[in-house]
Design a protein that fits this description.
By secondary structure, the chain is α+β, with helices and mostly antiparallel strands. It folds into three domains: 26-137, no CATH class; 144-280; 333-578, TolB, C-terminal domain (Neuraminidase, 6 Propeller).
Length: 579
C-alpha cells in the first residue's frame, strides 16, 4: 500500500501524524495510533498491522485473514453510512462547500487542497435534530419512496401487459398465417382439380383414338381369318371378303392419315408468378408498432382517441427506381398530383394534366384508367377498393367529390356530390371526408352533407393547398405554397406548430403514413423531406432532383413494402426503398 511517508519512518505513530494510509490498523486506531494495516479479517471486519495480527492470530486462529495480495476482497468499515465512498477505510469528516461534496481526510489531501471552504461535519451538524427540514425528512422520503413504488408497479404491470400483447399479437400472426395457408391450400386444391380435368380430357381424346385403331384392327383381322378359313374354294365368298377388306383398309388408311397429322398431346404447369411476386413485395406480415403512453403513478395522459402515438424513426434511402405511367393515346406530359394505395396493394394516382385516374399494379404498371370530366386535384382511399377524388374547375364552377371503385382490372365512377366552394384537396378519417378549398378546410359526410368548417382565411390567400391528418385524428398538417412553412393545427383550427425550413419553401403536398411518418413535397426545390410528428423539425431530406424527380406534387409511403412513391410533373413516378 502507498503512503505519503516512507523510508525509516515506520511502525506506530500518533494520530496527529500527517502520515496517510489507505487502511489504518483498527486496534492501533482505537489507541489513537496511526499504523498502516497490512491485513484484513473477514470475520472481525477489522484491519491489522503486523504486530496486532500476531495477537489476533493467537486468540482467533480460525478467522479468515486476507493479505495485500487479496486487497480487492477486503471489506469496508462496519458503519457504511459514515464511510467515504472513494476510500472505504476512511470516515467522512469534512464538507467541501466549493464542490458541495462530503469527503474524508484523504479526499481533501488528493482532490480538495485548493478549495477555500472546507468545514468540519461535526460543526455543520450541530442542532440538526431540531431543524424543521431534518424532521420532515422521513415524510419526504416516504413520499418519494411511495411514488417510486407506484411507478415501479406501473412498469411491472406494463411488462405484464406487453407480454400479454405479445401473446395476443402472436396469436394474430399465427391466425393470419393459418388463413394464408388455407388460401394456399384452396388454391392448390383448385389447381390440382384443374390439372386432373385437363389430363382427363386429354386421356379421353387419346383413348378414343386407341379405341378406333383397335376396332379397325380387330375387324380387319377377323375378315382375314374368315377369308382364309372359309373361302379358299368359294369364289363368290372370296370376292365378297376381298371387297370388304378393301373397304375396311380404306377406313384404316383414312384413320392413320388423320392420326398422323395430330400432334402428341402434352400438359405442362405454368406457375402464377404474380403470387410469388406479391408475397416477395411484403417485408413482413404486418406492422408491430411501438406505442407510447405516459403514466405517472396512476395518472394516464388520455388522448382524444384510444389510439396511441407512434414513435418516429428517421429513414435512410436505398434503391431508387422510376416507372413510366403515361398511356396511349395521351399526348400531354403527366402531372401526378395525388397518390393512394388500396388494401389489395394496387396504387391509384391522379393525373391532372390528362384528367385521369390510373390504377397501377405491384410492378407499377398501369392496368386500368378512368377519365374525369375536369382536372382531378387530389385523391384518398375510403374503404375496400373505393377511392374519392377531389375535382375542381373554377371557370365553370365545378367543385365535386367523385367516388371511384376498382374491380376486376377496371376503375369506374359510382357516384359524386357537389360542394359550393373550391375542392382542391381531400382526406378520409373515421367515416368523414376532409375537403380543402384553398382558403378553408371543411368536414363532410359521405353523402355530401357539410359537418363543420375547421379553418378559414378570409384574406383570400391560398392557405390550404394540400393537407394530411395524423392517424389519431387530432393533428392536421397544412401546406401553404405561398408561405414557406408547414403549419400544424388541432381540430379547432388553432396552430400548434410551425416549421420553416429552406427545403420546404414551396411545400405543395404532405402525407402521413399509417405508421405516423410525415413526408412533405417541396415543388420548387424538387425535394421530399421527412418531418417529425410534432411538425416542428425536419428529420431528413429523402429525395432530390438528381434522384429523377421534377416538381414533386404527391408522395405516398407504404408500410407494407417500405417504399416511398413520389409523383410530379413528368411521365415517371419515383419509387424509393426506405430503411
Amino acid at each position: 500500500m502507498a503512503s505519503k511517508l516512507t523510508g525509516s519512518l515506520k511502525g506506530s505513530m500518533s494520530m496527529a501524524s500527517d502520515l496517510i494510509h489507505d487502511f489504518v490498523c483498527s486496534p492501533c486506531q482505537e489507541d489513537k495510533l496511526n499504523t498502516e494495516a497490512k491485513y484484513f479479517c473477514r470475520d472481525c471486519s477489522k484491519y491489522y498491522c503486523d504486530q496486532c495480527l500476531t495477537f489476533h492470530s493467537k486468540i482467533l486462529k480460525k478467522h479468515i485473514v486476507l493479505g495485500y495480495e487479496d486487497v480487492d476482497k477486503w471489506g469496508g468499515r462496519g458503519d457504511t453510512l459514515i464511510s467515504c465512498d472513494l476510500h472505504s477505510s476512511k470516515v467522512i469528516e469534512l464538507m467541501c462547500e466549493d464542490h458541495a461534496e462530503m469527503c474524508c481526510q484523504l479526499c481533501v489531501t488528493l482532490n480538495h487542497r485548493m478549495c477555500r471552504s472546507i468545514n468540519l461535519i461535526s460543526d455543520l451538524a450541530k442542532g440538526i435534530h431540531t431543524m424543521a427540514y431534518f424532521k420532515q425528512l422521513p415524510s419526504k422520503v416516504a413520499k418519494v419512496t411511495t411514488s417510486l413504488n407506484q411507478v415501479r408497479e406501473v412498469r411491472k404491470k406494463n411488462q405484464c401487459s406487453l407480454k400479454t400483447s405479445g401473446r395476443s399479437m402472436l396469436t394474430k400472426i399465427k391466425d393470419l398465417r393459418k388463413k394464408l395457408n388455407q388460401l394456399l391450400d384452396e388454391l392448390e386444391k383448385k389447381t390440382v382439380e384443374q390439372m386432373n380435368s385437363v389430363l382427363a380430357n386429354l386421356d379421353d381424346t387419346l383413348q378414343n383414338d386407341i379405341d378406333s385403331c383397335t376396332s379397325i384392327h380387330d375387324q380387319l383381322k377377323a375378315l382375314m381369318d374368315t377369308i382364309q378359313a372359309q373361302c379358299k374354294d368359294n369364289e363368290p365368298s372370296s370376292y365378297i371378303g376381298f371387297r370388304k377388306c378393301e373397304k375396311k383398309m380404306a377406313e384404316a388408311k383414312s384413320l392413320l392419315q388423320e392420326l398422323s397429322t395430330k400432334p402428341e398431346l402434352t400438359a405442362t404447369f405454368k406457375p402464377e408468378t404474380t403470387i410469388t411476386q406479391l408475397l416477395s413485395d411484403f417485408n413482413i406480415l404486418g406492422n408491430v408498432q411501438e406505442n407510447l403512453e405516459i403514466k405517472i403513478g396512476h395518472q394516464l395522459s388520455e388522448n382524444k382517441s384510444s389510439k396511441q402515438t407512434h414513435i418516429s424513426r428517421v429513414f435512410k434511402t436505398g434503391k431508387k427506381s422510376t416507372f413510366n405511367v403515361k398511356i396511349k393515346p395521351e399526348t400531354k406530359n403527366c402531372s401526378i398530383i395525388g397518390i393512394t394505395e388500396l388494401p389489395s396493394g394496387e396504387i391509384v394516382i391522379a393525373d391532372d394534366r390528362n384528367n385521369s385516374v390510373k390504377v397501377l399494379n405491384r410492378d407499377y404498371k398501369v392496368i386500368a384508367q378512368c377519365d374525369v370530366p375536369i382536372e382531378p386535384k387530389d385523391i384518398c382511399h375510403i374503404s375496400g377498393n373505393q377511392v374519392a377524388v377531389a375535382v375542381n374547375w373554377p371557370e365553370d364552377v365545378t367543385h365535386e367529390v367523385h367516388f371511384l371503385t376498382v374491380s376486376a382490372g377496371t376503375i369506374t365512377m359510382t357516384r359524386k356530390f357537389s360542394v359550393d366552394h373550391d375542392c382542391v384537396s381531400i382526406r378520409h378519417h373515421e367515416e368523414q371526408l376532409y375537403v380543402g378549398s384553398i382558403t378553408a378546410l371543411y368536414i363532410y359526410t359521405h353523402a355530401g352533407k357539410q359537418v363543420k368548417k375547421i379553418l378559414e382565411n378570409r384574406s383570400g390567400r391560398q392557405t390550404v393547398i394540400h393537407f394530411a391528418l395524423n392517424q389519431v385524428g387530432n393533428k392536421i398538417y397544412i401546406c401553404n405554397y405561398y408561405d414557406p412553412k408547414l403549419f400544424t393545427i388541432d381540430m379547432n383550427g388553432s396552430i400548434v406548430a410551425t416549421l420553416k425550413d429552406p427545403d420546404i419553401s414551396t411545400a405543395c403536398d404532405v402525407h402521413v403514413s399509417e405508421d405516423g411518418h410525415v413526408f412533405v413535397c417541396s415543388w420548387y426545390n424538387n425535394m421530399v423531406v421527412q418531418v417529425d410528428q410534432e411538425g416542428k423539425k425536419k428529420l431528413a431530406t429523402l429525395v432530390r432532383k438528381e434522384d429523377g424527380i421534377n416538381c414533386p406534387k404527391a408522395a405516398w409511403y407504404s408500410p407494407y413494402t417500405g417504399r416511398l412513391i413520389v409523383g410530379g410533373k413528368q411521365d415517371n413516378i419515383l419509387v424509393v426503398e426506405l430503411q
